Amino acid sequence: MYPVIEPFDSGMLEVGDGHRVHWEVCGNPAGKPALVLHGGPGSGCTPGMRRFFDPATYRIVLFDQRMSGRSTPHAAEPGADLSANTTEHLIADVERLREHLGVDRWLVQGGSWGCVLALAYAQRHPDRVSEMVLCGLATGRRAETDLLTRGLGAIFPQAWERFRDGVPESDRDGDLADVYHRLLMDPDPAVHRRAARDWCAWEEALVPDSAPNSMFDDPDFALGFARVVTHFWRHGSWLDDEQLLSGTGALAGIPAKLLQGVLDLGNLIGTPWQLEAAWPGAELELVDAGHRAAGGLAEAVVRATDDFRPQRGISASGGGDL
């Protein structure tokens, strides 16, 4: 990964419905535009996400999606209203940010939920996407979230029993994301804080190959994260179940690198290969890694963005030195 860098520009963008999203730009102000879409949903951006791109050749844009990170309001706030936080809202926010920054087309990079949002955005606005680099591959299908909330219980039985037992006994055979969301939105701090801890502990159990996520130690981060994730999952991310797989025809002609850890448990339902088969021209690379974009998977993302760098001596707009 490239060295740690700081943004040269940042701000808060009014996106409607009382929401403001935090954005930042780093790297080369005259470089090739690249957009980073964080996962979760609800996790927010981290400084490490700036390091996937050559700062000498890329103009790197990051933003915290609604109700996460430094965006306001935050999902952990008392009385948080998540009704204006949907996939459609996020697609519109990306376009508003693109216009605000004066970008014509940009490379889009995302992992996990960021992969889902990247696919949804690119299928809606293919003329605004120059290339795509996706990892932790997901398409927002119910089969994927069902695997994560229930199917993997057979692999991690003790952790899953603790996760399941975090909800009332009468609700344990239902949609666990829906039940947890109800607990997470309970006004009693004892109820919603415990639900956040239980949800995030299960999230950690699903990535045994990764170091613990220290952000889950912050109770406000854990609460906001869990509220947004369950909000999206209980609604099927507002996507028809096969929408993103069947819609890949809109991406024809967009160069894409699909990067997947061989230890990613999402592989159990075949999403990487289904996405590659549905998307002519997309290149799938399997990496000795798990789900999170760290280690070998992070290195693969850097190799992919390096491959899409403009040639030296040719600017992103077609003239001048970078």
Question: What labels describe this entry?
Answer:
322 residues; globular; alpha/beta; eight-stranded mixed beta sheet; disordered C terminus; 8 strands
Question: How are the SSEs ordered, and which strands pair?
Answer:
Layout: E1 9-16, E2 19-27, E3 32-37, E4 58-63, H1 87-101, E5 106-111, H2 113-124, E6 129-135, H3 142-149, H4 157-164, H5 176-184, H6 189-205, H7 219-234, H8 243-246, E7 256-261, H9 271-278, E8 282-287, H10 295-307
Parallel strand pairs: 3-4, 3-5, 5-6, 6-7, 7-8
Antiparallel strand pairs: 1-2, 2-4
Helix pairs in contact: 1-2, 4-6, 5-7, 6-7
Give the end-to-end Cα distance, rounded to a whole number of Å: 20 Å
Q: Strands of the largest sheet, in order across it?
A: 1-2-4-3-5-6-7-8
Give the helix tally.
Answer: 10
Helix content: 25-40%
Structural class: alpha/beta
What profile does the largest beta sheet have? 8 strands, mixed
Query: Taking Cα atoms only, what radius of gyration do you get, to the nearest Å?
Result: 19 Å
- pLDDT averaged over residues: 94
Could you tell me the strand content as a percent range? 15-25%
The tally of strands reads 8
Order of helices and strands: EEEEHEHEHHHHHHEHEH
Contiguous low-pLDDT stretches (5 residues minimum) are 313-322
General form = globular
